[in-house]
Specification:
- This protein is globular.
- The longest helix has 28 residues, at 346-373.
- The protein has 18 helices and 2 strands.
- Strands 1-2 form a two-stranded antiparallel sheet.
- It has helices at residues 25-48, 55-62, 66-72, 76-98, 104-124, 141-159, 170-191, 199-212, 242-256, 263-270, 274-280, 284-308, 313-330, 346-373, 381-394, 399-402, 407-419, 426-430; strands at residues 9-10, 17-18.
- By secondary structure, the chain is an all-alpha fold.
- The chain folds into 2 domains: 9-164, Orthogonal Bundle (Tetracycline Repressor, domain 2); 242-430, Tetracycline Repressor, domain 2 (Orthogonal Bundle), CATH 1.10.357.
- Residues 54-73, 262-281 bind DNA.
- Keywords: DNA-binding, Transcription, Transcription regulation.
- This is TetR/AcrR family transcriptional regulator.
- Residues 1-30 are annotated as: Disordered.
């Protein structure tokens, strides 16, 4: 087990982090330098991805020689493991602090508060971000598997914020936990657009969304079925085979990250030649970018199809959510996980994030008009649309969770986390199955 950044504990009175046991001057200096390396590596991984973060880049960031860095971390993968282990430890500290609250509502509210406070400190320059855990999937098994085991423990601790529950409620609690974590992980993308003094208001509005949901009282989940090809993809192989490449590449990106979707793996799975690949796409980068662009186009196509189907804005929203969650649970040609954006060049990433924002804006307009007509509860449409975006995009990770359930029930249970809220009586949700 690699040593972690600090042996930090939460101050129960202030909610802040306090230092661990006292160390000798030599030990303190060692920890300070090690922490500086981990801070620099965290920033680089969040900006460029784990594969692109080198010992040389880290040494340059802290003005040390590469030889000095190897004294603390002999190899790049050891450094990456330490960064991610520290990230999981910091996330667990927040969960453990939130768990001290007396009720599930107060625990989830406290967890959101801690993460929003961290974002404020990062913007002020008084703390560093937590490393984005999506990059763990890019690591080799000897490094990745122990980290995944630690993440499973973190997930279980987060799920325990809802308290004890019978076994038949576990799928619902798992879905709620998944959405909570994915919202927290996506938060840095949009939260910085608010002034820091607005963060407490954002916290209240986000928790209210999780508490009460999107739906007005009395609304039920009964989405209309959109046409099978509502996302604009052909239902059978056409004359252009590029969508096959995109489907395989998207699954590999989602499972192994941007750098894990190699041309060799793609053509091996499709049982075609590299020449066939390059007949349709010039480079792997072209393929990856087209995966993202195609995903955004598909989401927009579904939103347009839902709008054309008529009905209230609530009915259009639930039709959109139903179609896209089903697509993600199917898993053959899912949406590209936005977590893979991290490894893209910054200019390309900025462009794709702008595309993601436009998708969220379309959702936001649906929410605004739904509030005007009274079919959707009064909420902050910006943060709600970003939360829906995180929910839909991360649904692919729940495909194994959904496989043992009737598909319609799985979609409804997952959607209920946001449509009905995270604290509604589980019997009310599960009783509809």
């Amino acid at each position: 087990m690699l040593r972690l950044r600090h042996e930090r504990v939460m101050d129960s009175k202030t909610g802040g982090l306090t230092g661990g046991r006292e160390r000798s001057p030599r030990g303190a200096r060692y920890e300070q330098k090690r922490d500086a390396l981990l801070d620099a590596a965290t920033t680089l991984i969040n900006e460029h991805g784990a594969k692109a973060t080198t010992l040389q880049a880290v040494s340059h960031a802290v003005e040390l020689s590469t030889t000095s860095v190897t004294y603390y971390f002999p190899r790049k993968d050891v450094l990456a493991a330490a960064v991610f282990e520290r990230a999981i430890e910091r996330l667990r500290e927040f969960v453990d602090e939130a768990a001290k609250e007396p009720t599930p509502r107060e625990r989830v509210c406290r967890l959101l508060e801690l993460h929003i406070r961290l974002r404020a400190d990062v913007i002020r320059g008084t703390d560093v971000s937590i490393a984005t855990l999506s990059e763990v999937r890019t690591l080799d098994d000897p490094i990745r598997l122990p980290l995944l085991r630690q993440y499973v423990e973190l997930f279980r601790a987060t799920r325990a914020l809802w308290g004890d529950f019978p076994a038949d409620q576990k799928p619902l609690m798992t879905a709620r936990t998944h959405l909570l974590q994915e919202t927290i992980f996506w938060m840095p993308v949009w939260l910085a657009r608010y002034p820091i003094d607005e963060f407490p208001r954002v916290h209240r509005q986000l928790f209210e969304l999780f508490d009460l949901g999107l739906a007005v009282p009395g609304a039920t989940w009964s989405p209309a079925d959109l046409p099978r090809c509502a996302d604009g993809e052909p239902t059978a192989d056409g004359e252009n085979a590029a969508p096959n490449f995109l489907g395989v590449a998207t699954r590999l990106i989602n499972e192994s990250g941007y750098r894990g979707a190699s041309v060799v793996r793609i053509v091996d799975e499709l049982k075609v030649t590299k020449g066939s690949f390059y007949h349709h796409l010039d480079t792997k980068d072209d393929l990856i970018l087209e995966c993202f662009r195609r995903s955004f186009r598909r989401i927009s196509a579904v939103q347009r199809a839902a709008a054309e189907s008529g009905g209230s804005q609530w009915e259009r929203l639930e039709a959109t959510m139903n179609y896209l969650i089903d697509l993600q649970f199917e898993g053959d040609f899912p949406l590209t996980r936005t977590s893979a954006l991290q490894a893209l060049p910054i200019d390309v990433r900025t462009d794709l994030l702008a595309r993601s924002d436009r998708t969220a804006l379309r959702l936001g307009n649906t929410l605004v008009e739904g509030m005007q007509e009274g079919s959707i509860r009064l909420i902050n449409p910006h943060l709600a649309s970003q939360t829906i975006t995180a929910m839909l995009n991360s649904a692919y990770d729940l495909r194994n969770w959904a496989i043992d359930m009737d598909r319609k029930d799985a979609i409804r249970i997952y959607a209920s986390c946001l449509t009905q809220g995270m604290f509604v009586d589980p019997a009310k949700i599960l009783g509809q199955a």
